[in-house]
Amino acid sequence: MSKRIFKFRLFVAGDAQNSTLAIANLAALCRDHLPGRHEVEVIDVLREPKRALAESIFMTPTLVMYAPAPVRKIIGSLSQSEVVLRALGLEAAPA
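User: That's the sequence. What structure does it adopt?
Assistant: Structure tokens below.
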């Protein structure tokens, strides 16, 4: 049985405090709950504003989970890990 790979794209605004927190919180979540089963792309909307607009991202930080389906979006610093896990459908996922 192959492992499901979780694909995330995190939209941030430079080195703003919430962006830095979101990057750290996502890294911890992936390390603790999805070791070896995740891909993360971080997009700085200050450097690539057209990518954010193309994906209808209007606030940062915004996390988008593309795989597995369905696509899910979470806005914020991802500080409340239990809420984030539930929103991503990971609360019952094996560690």
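The longest strand covers residues 6-12.
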